[in-house]
Write a structure and sequence with these properties.
Number of strands: 4
Order of helices and strands: EHEEHHHHHHHE
CATH architecture of one domain: Orthogonal Bundle
Distance between the termini: 7 Å
Strand content: 5-15%
Structural class: mainly alpha
Helix content: 40-55%
Shape: globular
Largest sheet: 4 strands, mixed
CATH topology of one domain: Triger factor/SurA peptide-binding fold
Radius of gyration: 20 Å
CATH superfamily of one domain: Porin chaperone SurA, peptide-binding domain
Number of helices: 8
CATH class of one domain: Mainly Alpha
């Protein structure tokens, strides 16, 4: 297993990228580190070292990169920082599939380096996030001390969270640049979505739909993101087919 490396952090996948639900790529966090063996996770806040060691069973191998049990745990804890995302619990299998997709994207990012996102940009997004998480109110997240307590309660340090969020931003930028720029939504497509989907949805709720002209921009964004999602899904499928992806079942040994 000495030819395998572990990429720590949490979040990629077939994420449903619609900006209307805030693009969570998803789902995509942590800094890639090449290591000889599956290591103990560092600085996990309120998670003890013994617990982290126990968690670090290999659950998948993606082109030589390890995904560990502790990565699943970390990704579940990162959900606390997604106030606008879906809170529907994922199955273990769904989470593993999403982290496999995350790793595939991170590998492509390494092959296509981009200009690093500056601390000020990351801090600006986290500043907005602090005001958007309902659970933050109990910790007094308006203050730095309160925010630090909330972050620590999720098992992270502020520095760790910043680096994970920076990577999420980098992945989002990568996906947007690769798939979004060439897409054009026609007025015919907007009309069809309004008449065929939106009106019926409002009628089902016994509500009157707003005039199409007032929400045309939002419809265009939804349709654009649906196409981005489809292109991303197809791309990830091809990366899986071209590479080597293995889910490791409990008790199964790596070659």
């Amino acid at each position: 297993m000495n030819n395998l490396s572990h990429r720590s952090g949490g979040g990629s996948g077939r994420w449903g990228l619609a900006l209307a639900c805030v693009l969570v790529i998803a789902m995509l966090c942590g800094v890639a580190r090449a290591q000889q063996t599956a290591p103990e996770k560092q600085g996990a806040g309120n998670v003890s070292a013994a617990q982290r060691v126990a968690l670090d069973r290999v659950v998948a191998v993606v082109n030589g990169d390890l995904i560990l049990e502790s990565d699943l745990d970390e990704e579940m804890r990162m959900a606390a920082f997604q106030p606008f995302g879906s809170r529907t619990a994922e199955t273990r299998e769904e989470l593993i599939e999403r982290l496999i997709d995350r790793d595939l994207i991170l590998q492509q990012l390494q092959l296509q380096p981009q200009v690093a996102i500056e601390d000020a940009q990351v801090d600006a997004e986290l500043g907005v996030l602090r005001k958007s998480i309902p659970e933050c109110a109990a910790y007094g997240c308006a203050t730095d001390a309160g925010w630090e307590k909330f972050v620590a309660a999720q098992g992270f340090t502020v520095v760790e969270l910043r680096e994970r969020w920076r990577e999420r931003m980098e992945v989002l930028r990568f996906v947007e640049a690769r798939f979004r720029m060439g897409i054009r939504i026609s007025q015919v497509e907007i009309d069809a979505y309004y008449k065929g989907t939106l009106i019926s949805a409002y009628e089902k709720e016994k509500m009157t739909a707003p005039e199409e002209a007032t929400i045309a921009d939002q419809i265009q964004e939804i349709l654009l993101q649906q196409q981005v999602d489809k292109l991303l899904d197809d791309w990830l499928t091809s990366l899986r087919a071209e590479g080597s992806v293995k889910i490791v079942k409990p008790g199964e040994e790596l070659p």
